[in-house]
UniProtKB/TrEMBL annotation:
Pfam families on file: PDZ_6, Peptidase_S41
Key words, A-Z: Hydrolase, Protease, Serine protease
Family to which this protein belongs: Belongs to the peptidase S41A family.
Entry's Gene Ontology BP terms: proteolysis; signal transduction
Species per Swiss-Prot/TrEMBL record: Chitinophaga pinensis (strain ATCC 43595 / DSM 2588 / LMG 13176 / NBRC 15968 / NCIMB 11800 / UQM 2034)
Gene3D superfamilies: 2-enoyl-CoA Hydratase, Chain A, domain 1, 2.30.42.10, 3.30.750.44
Ranges for domain PDZ: 90-170
Annotated protein name in UniProt: Carboxyl-terminal protease
């Protein structure tokens, strides 16, 4: 509707000009634009003044203004945002990976709030809190009935402040009262580094925050020191949402020599356009390199992957990345508020922008759409390989993502795998190293017994498809003709939950082993245990072990 009025307003202006002086049609210049802004701001201020003065009920000013801001932001992309002073900690966390708190993750449902992860070396870890502990109260307040966002807010706070907490032991039921002193929690950009398959290095990077490039290089240097015969490196950027552009350039510089363009940015303010080049000699410009990506690899992750691909420095394996080719800048607002605004698009060394969604054009419903494959343009890497814009970074070696079965999803959602791991932890004082730990057949049988009497009902994807067919057939009045066949098919497809557990035993056993490993070795243990069954990691190892295949992918 607003677009309609804008179009008609411009048409009326043109008609007035033609009648008045026979002038030719011309576009608004900057003076016209700023006049329109000033005029509409005057109208907006007068409108609010009259509404606030004469409306029958009281109108909360802050709430009303925020709704106006939110309405304006609907015309932009989802990365442009208004950040009030009370939410600046979130902005700080995105840039630095630091926040004030106690170092735990929690899961809340209608019955309980359970600690699911404890940050190694954090205040909760120092106080002896374990995953599985149930929180009863925080600072004397019973938390039953509070949502997860409210509980997370209560756990956070200024470093040095204290938190009184009562927890319940998940097995014995004993209550424990603790006073926890909050600290500055620094979520590490490198969540794990190690060696896999004896001679392939592996580094998992979770975000691009301050000094994250230095952390990646430090982890790489340590791997080279410990394993001098290392034949290749896997840089895992799966699930990494990005962060600071400068840090992406630093990470690329670890593998790319000095004075190479990694990314360039172009926007409305031409004086802000910039080309980012590597500033130092590469830490290692020759080691065979694989970068792992998936649909959740975005922004700075795509800058690194795009540069490595365009410069033919390494092989990209996994799935196509998210496709966020937009750059945000933070601008100050009155009363310590901030505007995080998209100011530019970024371009990889070959000149392509990998932005997948075109927010500048909307359909008649106001919805945005993905860039169609038919309009995506081709570019060339340094070696002449074809790469395309407009849809994220496409892998050189695509690997289908691993999808969990419905029964596994249900067991995770209902916290049955988590709760069994808690029981296992308290009945087994120690286990083997994370990468060699395996559940025995007796252990898996214990898990099946644990599930007896517990509700883990679910619908398979086939059942959901069948129900959808039934609804459509009824709507189109075909159902009566096929009712008998449909019911027979429904009986044949009816799943046996116990059989589903056995059919998906390997997958469920893997999830149990990863959760249990995390109880003894924390996040590092979970990751280390997962590597042996990780399809993308195994494909990367195979490629790095075959120089001929590695080179073929780069041609």
């Amino acid at each position: 509707m607003r677009a309609f009025f804008r179009r008609n307003r411009r048409m009326m202006l043109v008609l007035v000009l033609l009648v008045a002086g026979g002038m030719s049609i011309m576009a608004y210049n900057e003076k016209d634009k700023y006049f329109e802004i000033a005029k509409n701001l005057d109208i907006f201020a007068a409108f609010y003044r009259e509404l606030n003065t004469y409306y029958v009920d009281e109108l909360p000013p802050e709430k009303l203004m925020h709704k106006g801001i939110d309405a304006m932001l609907e015309e932009t992309d989802p990365y442009t945002d208004f950040i009030p002073e009370e939410n600046l900690d979130e902005l700080k966390f995105m840039a630095t990976g630091k926040y004030g708190g106690v170092g735990v993750s929690v899961n809340t449902d209608s019955e309980r709030t359970v600690i699911t992860d404890v940050y190694e070396g954090g205040p909760m870890d120092k106080a002896g809190v374990k995953p599985g502990d149930i929180i009863l109260s925080l600072d004397g307040k019973d938390i039953k009935g509070l949502d997860q966002e409210e509980i997370s807010r209560m756990l956070k706070g200024a470093p040095g402040s204290s938190l009184d907490m009562i927890t319940k032991h998940p097995v014995t039921g004993a209550q424990n009262t603790r006073k926890i002193n909050r600290e500055e929690i620094n979520v590490k950009a490198v969540s794990f580094s190690g060696i896999t398959n004896r001679d392939i290095g592996y580094i998992r990077m979770t975000q691009f925050t301050e000094n994250s490039g230095e952390l990646v290089q430090g982890a790489f240097a340590e791997l080279k020191k410990q394993y001098p015969s290392m034949k290749g490196l896997i840089l895992d950027l799966r699930g990494n949402p990005g962060g600071l552009l400068d840090e992406a350039v630093v990470v690329a510089n670890i593998f790319v020599d000095k004075n190479k363009t990694i990314v360039s940015t172009k926007g409305k303010v031409k004086s802000w356009d910039r080309e980012y080049k590597t500033e130092t000699s590469a830490f290692d410009a020759h080691i065979p390199l694989v970068v792992l990506t998936n649909r959740s690899s975005a922004s700075a992750s795509e800058i690194v992957a795009g540069a490595i691909q365009d410069l033919d420095r390494g092989v990209i394996i996994g799935q196509r990345s998210f496709g966020k080719g937009l750059v945000q800048t933070t601008r100050p607002l009155p009363y310590n508020a901030k505007l995080k605004v998209t100011t530019a698009k970024y371009y990889t060394p070959s000149g392509r922008c990998i932005q997948a969604i075109d927010y500048s054009h909307r359909n008649s419903d106001g919805e945005v759409e993905y860039v169609a494959d038919s309009v995506r343009k081709s570019f060339n890497t340094v070696a002449g390989r074809k790469v395309r814009d407009g849809g994220g970074i496409e892998p050189d070696d695509a690997v289908e993502p691993t999808l969990l079965s419905q029964v596994a999803i249900t067991l995770l959602r209902k916290q049955y795998i988590f709760d069994f791991a808690t029981q296992y932890y308290y009945s087994h004082p120690k286990i083997a190293a994370a990468n060699t730990f395996e559940l025995s057949e007796d252990d898996f049988s214990d898990f099946l017994k644990y599930l007896d009497g517990r509700n883990y009902s679910y619908k398979t994807r086939s059942e959901e498809a069948l129900e959808s067919f039934q609804a459509t057939a009824r709507k189109e009045k075909y159902y009566e003709a096929v009712a008998k066949e449909f019911e027979a098919l429904q009986v044949k497809m009816k799943h046996d939950k116990k059989q589903d557990l056995l059919k998906n035993k390997t997958e469920i056993k893997r999830l149990l082993e990863e959760e249990i490993a995390s109880r003894y070795y924390m996040q590092r243990g979970r990751i280390e245990k997962s590597l042996s069954s990780d399809n993308e990691v195994n494909e990367a190892i195979a490629v790095l072990h075959s120089p001929e295949r590695y080179q073929q992918l780069l041609k």
